Design the sequence.
């Protein structure tokens, strides 16, 4: 949508809102298309619509879903929260039993999915609507329609300019579901089902490529790692001599046989090992401006990186927050080709800074690396291995939120093979990651093409999005 476009609305077209956003040409054209083909309000298909709340979380228990745990393909189990069975039983309205539609109504708006009993028991927070239709056989079709451009634009039109975008039950029920024939229904379901299958296959190929990166790296370094033991009571009982812990950590997890075997493997390896400290020229931790400074802005001024902006070894800028230029002196900056490492919460996740300058928060540290000693891309691939992340988590302080300070971070062990080996590994992993990204983009493109095809099925073959 072009926010700067000027257009005119007659008095008779006003619908209770006076802001220009609501009458954007994209929204108005969408309404014209819906009126041409006819529609039924979503509320007419709904038997129950409700939502949850936000209770106290615990480490293990009943899965508790938030918007970040859902997309149109299903439930994402990363960063899953849990509630107690007692709390779950007290939240009866929002309990999930299977065959409900979940619909995001705060934060990221308009994501619909068919919940097919992913967990034996589960619950939701107040940002997700739980919807039970009059006929459950319509669930799959209705999810496809709700995720289409025709319906998603309606949800976005309801938004108001606020810190937390949200829509309510009445607005969800007022979404116009296009009227379609039985043949159109079959075509839509077949088109989307085929697209999801292709997408799933390409994403599996991409995941297989990425999952094998760690194995390749360790094979090239001639390091054979121990298998992580099953988390059983037998494997959790062990003895450690007092001399082995003197001056170091006292928590039991730090001395499991798995960690001890890793250290022994490193010592016996033909590959030379050093610490992060020996190859780091400078290290700094970020900060968040004080609230009284009113530092944040909707304008794209100074990009502000949080640990949540680092995923799969890369910086994701789509959800950057921005800070006003006038508070620049209160910020800590990371510069291009510095390595950024999460030191709180999601400990160990790292990325190479590809931006000229980023303000960073207190949950990450930025390191200037001595590139005369190590290939920086080889280093970033090592830091993102499961072993390196596990070793860094081992160094974290035991508190409400896991945290690693900079002196401790610099103790992390780093392999330092011949530079030719480093270069070979870096080039090979780069190619694998590029191939994986290509597959992921193809999967995404497959789905987008299918959605456009669905719009043509609904609106006619001559329709152009």
Sequence:
């Amino acid at each position: 949508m072009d926010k700067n476009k000027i257009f005119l609305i007659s008095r008779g077209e006003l619908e209770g809102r006076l802001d220009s956003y609501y009458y954007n040409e994209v929204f108005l054209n969408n309404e014209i298309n819906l009126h041409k083909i006819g529609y039924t309000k979503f509320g007419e298909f709904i038997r129950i619509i409700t939502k949850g709340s936000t209770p106290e979380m615990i480490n293990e228990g009943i899965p508790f879903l938030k918007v970040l745990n859902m997309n149109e393909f299903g439930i994402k189990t990363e960063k899953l929260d849990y509630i107690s069975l007692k709390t779950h039983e007290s939240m009866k309205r929002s309990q999930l039993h299977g065959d409900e539609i979940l619909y995001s109504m705060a934060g990221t708006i308009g994501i619909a999915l068919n919940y097919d009993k992913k967990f034996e028991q589960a619950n939701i927070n107040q940002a997700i609507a739980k919807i039970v239709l009059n006929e459950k056989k319509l669930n799959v079709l209705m999810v496809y329609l709700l995720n289409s451009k025709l319906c998603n634009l309606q949800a976005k039109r309801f938004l108001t300019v606020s810190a937390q975008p949200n829509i309510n039950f009445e607005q969800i029920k007022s979404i116009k579901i296009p009227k379609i024939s039985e043949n159109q229904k079959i075509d839509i379901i077949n088109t989307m089902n085929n697209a999801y299958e292709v997408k799933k296959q390409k994403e599996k190929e991409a995941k297989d490529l990425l999952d094998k990166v760690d194995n390749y790296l360790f094979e090239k370094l001639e390091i054979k790692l121990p298998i992580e033991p099953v988390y059983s009571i037998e494997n959790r009982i062990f003895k450690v001599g007092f001399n082995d812990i003197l001056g170091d950590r006292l928590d039991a997890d730090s001395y499991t046989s798995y960690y001890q075997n890793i250290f022994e493997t490193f010592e016996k390896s033909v590959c030379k090992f050093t610490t992060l400290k020996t190859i780091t020229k400078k290290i700094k931790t970020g900060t968040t401006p004080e609230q009284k400074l009113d530092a944040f802005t909707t304008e794209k001024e100074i990009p502000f990186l949080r640990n949540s902006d680092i995923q799969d070894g890369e910086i994701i800028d789509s959800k950057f927050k921005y800070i006003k230029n006038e508070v620049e002196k209160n910020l800590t900056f990371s510069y291009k080709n510095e390595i950024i490492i999460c030191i709180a919460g999601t400990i160990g996740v790292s990325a190479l800074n590809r931006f000229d300058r980023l303000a960073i928060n207190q949950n990450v540290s930025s390191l200037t690396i001595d590139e005369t000693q190590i290939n920086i891309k080889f280093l970033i691939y090592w830091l993102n291995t499961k072993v390196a992340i596990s070793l860094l988590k081992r160094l974290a302080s035991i508190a409400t939120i896991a945290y690693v300070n900079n002196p401790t971070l610099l103790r992390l062990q780093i392999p330092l093979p011949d530079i030719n080996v480093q270069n070979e590994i870096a080039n090979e992993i780069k190619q694998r990651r590029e191939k994986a990204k290509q597959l992921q983009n193809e999967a995404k493109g497959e789905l987008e093409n299918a959605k456009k095809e669905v719009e043509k099925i609904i609106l006619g073959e001559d329709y152009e999005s």
Observations:
- DSSP finds 13 helices and 24 strands in the chain.
- The chain has a mean pLDDT of 87.
- The first strand starts at residue 39 and ends at 41.
